[in-house]
Design brief:
The complex is a heterodimer of chains A (277) and B (286).
Chain A: E1 12-14, E2 20-22, E3 30-39, E4 42-52, E5 57-61, H1 68-74, E6 85-93, E7 96-97, H2 105-111, E8 112-115, H3 126-136, H4 143-156, H5 160-163, H6 176-189, E9 194-198, H7 206-219, E10 224-228, H8 232-238, E11 241-246, E12 249-255, H9 256-261, H10 266-272
Parallel strand pairs in A: 5-10, 5-11, 8-9, 9-10
Antiparallel strand pairs in A: 1-2, 3-4, 3-6, 6-7, 11-12
Chain B: H1 3-48, H2 51-55, H3 69-99, H4 104-118, H5 121-133, H6 141-166, H7 169-177, H8 182-210, H9 214-217, H10 237-246, H11 250-285
Helix pairs in contact in B: 1-11, 3-4, 3-6, 3-8, 3-10, 4-6, 5-6, 6-8, 7-8, 8-11, 10-11
The chains are: A alpha/beta (277), B mainly alpha (286).
Chain lengths: 277, 286
């Protein structure tokens, strides 16, 4: 009988500059190098450097206003739509800088999907919501292929059984939790590499939250998942790696169990034990 | 409670009652003209209203009977032409103003639209006369359509802009995050989300221009005969009402009242439809 070894994810350690360095070789999906981010003259993120690994869930935690949402939105250049924002430093996704000149933002966002804090289904049918990305990116040539991909995405988002008989109904008729899973299905439909989730469960009740968490757990098999959460228990439950942000800085970044059991930084410990934030 | 506070309390209640009464009286005064217009138009119009009005052509002056089929068809053609010009231009300028809000051009366009909206309709008629009648040396339905279109553009543009701004920014981000270009996000998500409201705005603009006379006097003029030729003068309900009301014939007066009633009803139905759509949309949005 073969001995089954548990997989060992790469273990980053944190140097003095809070830069995690891999101790075991492994591919890096997203490599952020010395990033500063500005809203006008105000610096919102300061010298952020970290590696995000494929097929794991990486959680960003920290108090409100610490920059975690701003940071996740730099990973698909969603901040570009806000006038007066500026990025310094590099964000490499598979070794290509997404802020280099000539990068096609539309293609980038196809590869790096995003789910938002507040579910934002389009005022179209359930089917059309999921089909939207497929249509605009011309990912289905026939009607049956489109229908197949929509079904598959809804199944991946664990929503199919609830909506399969009402695909033509308005997406706005779904409950909050269902709407959020629909948005996840919509993001998954275009087969991104990376899925960014900005507090996807913060507006949901505990049962809906649990379903999203279970979903996140399964999604990491296929995607690189980055999740922002203000809920530390949630980070502990779903993530493999956790980054703690405070006042626009990355304080500590490590394996989730380490962060929650033996953080290196006093600040992290104070935050996760609820002494502030 | 001392006597002093009691007196102040009475005074406060008194002032409040006076203001409430003043507000109520103002509302009544504002409603009186509408009530009178409706009362007279309905009382006079209903008597003359019959099917013949819509199906028959005008009889020669002085002869009883006849209708104004040419005028109703003319109004349909003129408002249709006006919408044909105004809806695309108005909606696209509305999109521009909401997408590029804050830019100098958008602010200038908004100001221009508001100014245009305030330009007296007779001036717009003269302008259309200058560009679409003089060069061809004759009145035409097309010129009338242009005049009405110019009146419609600012209404449609401003309504579109305001409704697009009401669409949550999250929807735009959702589309962009799926790899939509800006134009794609606007035309496949944001405009459709605002569409019922935009349609409402167009309907209200239609109701507004259907009742216009002044811009048509120098442009589409009038036509005693049935015409659908866009290059020729064309009859319209409003100009016909004006002609008939100024005439010396009792029968024409009655027909003018009936046509007025039809116009008022058209505006009423348009407003009602607009309200209905808006209410439905608001219910759907939750």
């Amino acid at each position: 009988m073969p001995v089954v070894k548990p997989p060992t994810p790469p273990v980053p350690t944190v140097t003095r500059q809070q830069r995690p360095v891999e101790t075991t070789p492994g591919p890096v999906k997203i490599d952020v190098q010395a990033m500063n981010f500005y809203y006008g003259a105000k610096r919102a993120l300061e010298d952020i450097s970290l590696h995000i690994y494929p097929n794991v869930v990486t959680a960003f935690i920290g108090p409100s206003g610490c920059g975690k949402s701003t940071f996740i939105r730099t990973l698909n250049r969603m901040n570009d739509v806000i006038p007066g924002t500026r990025v310094e430093g590099k964000v490499l996704i598979e070794n290509a800088d997404i802020y280099a000149s000539g990068v096609d933002v539309v293609k980038l966002r196809r590869r790096v999907g995003m789910v938002f804090q507040k579910s934002n289904p389009f005022p179209k049918s359930i089917f059309e919501n999921v089909a939207y990305g497929l249509r605009i990116n011309r990912m289905a040539t026939t009607r049956s292929e489109l229908a197949g991909r929509v079904e598959e995405s809804l199944k991946q988002a664990a929503l199919w059984t609830e909506v399969k008989d009402r695909l033509q109904e308005s997406a706005l008729s779904l409950s909050g939790g269902q709407q959020q899973r629909l948005c996840i299905a919509r993001a998954l439909a275009i087969e991104p590499d990376i899925l960014l989730m900005d507090e996807p469960a913060s507006a949901l009740d505990p049962i809906a939250t649990q379903r999203i968490e279970e979903l996140v757990y399964h999604l990491k098999k296929l995607y690189t998942v980055v999740i922002v959460t203000h809920n530390m228990q949630q980070a502990a439950r779903v993530s493999d790696f956790t980054a703690f942000f405070w006042l626009g800085r990355l304080v500590e970044y490590d394996r989730t169990d380490k962060i929650f059991t033996a953080p290196s930084e006093k600040l992290t410990e104070d935050y996760i034990t609820g002494r502030f934030g | 409670m001392t006597r002093d506070t009691l007196r102040r309390d009475t005074l406060r209640r008194g002032i409040s009652a006076v203001f409430v009464a003043a507000c109520g009286a103002s509302v009544l005064i504002a409603l009186v003209p509408l009530a009178f217009i409706l009362f007279y138009v309905i009382r006079e119009g209903v008597q003359a209203l019959n099917l013949e009005l819509f199906t028959h052509m005008p009889k020669p002056a002085g002869e009883a009977g006849g209708g104004m089929r040419n005028a109703f068809v003319g109004t349909l053609i003129l408002t249709g032409l006006g919408s044909l010009f105004a809806v695309p231009i108005g909606v696209l300028s509305g999109v521009y103003m909401s997408e590029y809000r804050g830019t100098r051009l958008a602010i200038a366009v908004r100001f221009a639209a508001d100014t245009l909206n305030g330009v007296p309709s007779i001036v717009i008629g003269i302008f259309a006369y200058g560009i679409a009648v003089l060069p061809f040396r004759h009145f035409s339905a097309l010129a009338g359509g242009i005049a009405l279109g110019i009146m419609m553009i600012p209404i449609v543009a401003r309504t579109t802009e305001e409704l697009l701004l009401l669409v949550p920014g999250a929807m735009r981000e959702g589309a962009l995050a799926l790899g939509a270009t800006r134009a794609r996000a606007v035309f496949s998500v944001i405009v459709p989300a605002a569409l019922p409201g935009i349609v409402t705005g167009v309907v209200l603009a239609l109701a507004r221009i259907a009742g216009e006379t002044a811009p048509l006097l120098f442009t589409s003029f009038n036509n005693q005969f049935f015409s659908t030729n866009l290059g020729q003068p064309i009859a319209s309900t409003t100009v016909q009402i004006w002609t008939y009301a100024m005439s010396a014939f009792e029968d024409w007066h009655r027909q003018a009242w009936a046509a007025s009633l039809v116009l008022v009803m058209f505006v009423f139905v348009c407003s009602l439809a607009a309200r209905f759509v808006t209410a439905r949309v608001q219910r759907l949005r939750g």
